[in-house]
Structures are given as structure tokens and as C-alpha cells.
Design a protein that fits this description.
The structure is a single chain. By secondary structure, this protein is mostly helical. The protein has one domain. It contains twelve helices and no strands. Helix 5 packs across helix 10. The radius of gyration is 17 Å and the shape is globular.
């Protein structure tokens, strides 16, 4: 795969993980454009997601230790749908990550989600068990490449009347158990003999962490300033281009 490709993909992952434009869709598209790109399943994708997990933990390191048991319970409830879907349909999901066939249509769906978020009137509700579970269902649907995880979960939150800032924070924190679980599953599946070059994966990890940490603060500001329509236009344009490739 090489250092250049690893760094390039790491930067894409770090920047797009927190934008409602689908990091997984960008990774699948970028990998399909890199000549001779090969990897053992989706292990490289998961490692890059692991890097952004650390970026989230480091960015919110002060607030995380202040979370109450109730909030942690909501995160657990919101994680259940993705765990069930990921366990039952692991092979089918992995196949989706190895094909760019339907990416164009899926980017279009992400565009519609962002447009809907832009048009929803902000609410003032807090996170609770019911809306966290429904947000978890949105996260499970977003396992499909090019369906934005952050866009889907933020949409679910604001559509249920959760205050936008709280919806964004819950979306980012909800990614932690989901990404951690995916890493454990993939590492257990491939093991140390997975046939990958450690150095390539390491530089990809560092690139994703650095760019992800940089992006979190910027993205929080953009999301709270109701800039979703620009993300919608971006997804529409990228979807159209992908369909023409």
C-alpha cells in the first residue's frame, strides 16, 4: 500500500469522520482509485477509525470523566442496534466496503440527511433512553458505506428535539463504543498474522488522529452554526461525480 497512500487515507478519515459526509464512503472511494490497493478485509479502515476514536477521547478528555452513570447508560442503549446488525451481517457489511458500486446513491442519501438537518427547527430536549436508542438505530443504518454516521445520528437527535449541541456531542461519544467494538472484532478475526505492513498502518493511524483532533473543534463550530446545507451540496456533487466514474 505504501506510506503515501496510508497518510492520504488517514487524513481523509480524520477530516471526514466528524463531517456529515461519510468517512467510510470516502475511504472506499479513495481506495478504489488507488492502483493495486489491497488490504485484509476492512482492517485498515477499522484502524483509521480507531485513531479517530482516540481523537474523540482526547478532545473530550475532561468532560468524559464527568459523565454520569445515566449518560453512560444512554450510550450503551444507543450502541445495541449497531452491535446486533454488525454481528448478524458482518460478511455482507465487509463486502460493501470492498465495492464502490452504490457509493453515488449512498452519498446522495447523506446529502438528503444533511439538508433535512438544516431545515429542522432546533429543539431543547436532553438525551434520554428512548431517543438514544432511536439514534442508535440511525447509527446502525449508517454502517452502510457513504451513509454518514455523524449525519445520521445528528439528524436522529435533532429530529427528536434534542438540543443541537447535545445531539452533536452524543453523536461523537456514541462513536466510541461502536468503533471500539469493531476494532475488537476485526483484530480478533485477522490476528497478528493478517498479512499487513505494520508501518503503513501506523502512519495511517497517526495521520487520522492528528487530522481528526484538528477537525473536531472546527466541525463542532460549523455544525452549531447550521452549515449543513453546504455538506448536503457537497454530498450531492460527490454522489453525481461518483456515479459518472
Amino acid at each position: 500500500m505504501g506510506f503515501i497512500s496510508s497518510i492520504f487515507l488517514g487524513i481523509i478519515q480524520g477530516l471526514t469522520e466528524f463531517l456529515p459526509v461519510s468517512s467510510s464512503g470516502h475511504l472506499v472511494l479513495a481506495q478504489s482509485l488507488i492502483p493495486g490497493f489491497r488490504q485484509p478485509g476492512i482492517l485498515f479502515d477499522v484502524i483509521l477509525h480507531f485513531a479517530t476514536l482516540f481523537a474523540v477521547l482526547f478532545y473530550f478528555r475532561k468532560g468524559i470523566f464527568k459523565l454520569g452513570l445515566g449518560y453512560l447508560w444512554y450510550l450503551a442503549v444507543g450502541t445495541v442496534p449497531a452491535v446486533v446488525i454488525g454481528f448478524l451481517f458482518k460478511d455482507a457489511i465487509e463486502g460493501m466496503f470492498q465495492s464502490a458500486k452504490f457509493l453515488g446513491f449512498e452519498f446522495m442519501i447523506s446529502g438528503l440527511i444533511n439538508l433535512a438537518i438544516y431545515k429542522i427547527k432546533p429543539g431543547k430536549k436532553a438525551v434520554n433512553a428512548k431517543n438514544s436508542f432511536l439514534t442508535g438505530i440511525a447509527q446502525a443504518v449508517a454502517i452502510i458505506p457513504a451513509i454518514s454516521r455523524s449525519g445520521s445520528t445528528i439528524f436522529s437527535g435533532v429530529a427528536q428535539g434534542i438540543e443541537p449541541k447535545k445531539a452533536v456531542e452524543f453523536s461523537f461519544l456514541l462513536s466510541v463504543p461502536a468503533i471500539l467494538g469493531a476494532n475488537i472484532l476485526e483484530i480478533a478475526s485477522h490476528g497478528p498474522g493478517g498479512g499487513f505492513v505494520v508501518s503503513d498502518y501506523l502512519v495511517g493511524f497517526v495521520a487520522a488522529f492528528a487530522s481528526g483532533f484538528f477537525a473536531i473543534g472546527l466541525v463542532l463550530k460549523l455544525l452549531l452554526n447550521r452549515k449543513f446545507k453546504f455538506f448536503a451540496y457537497y454530498c450531492f456533487i460527490l454522489g453525481a461525480i461518483t456515479l459518472l466514474i
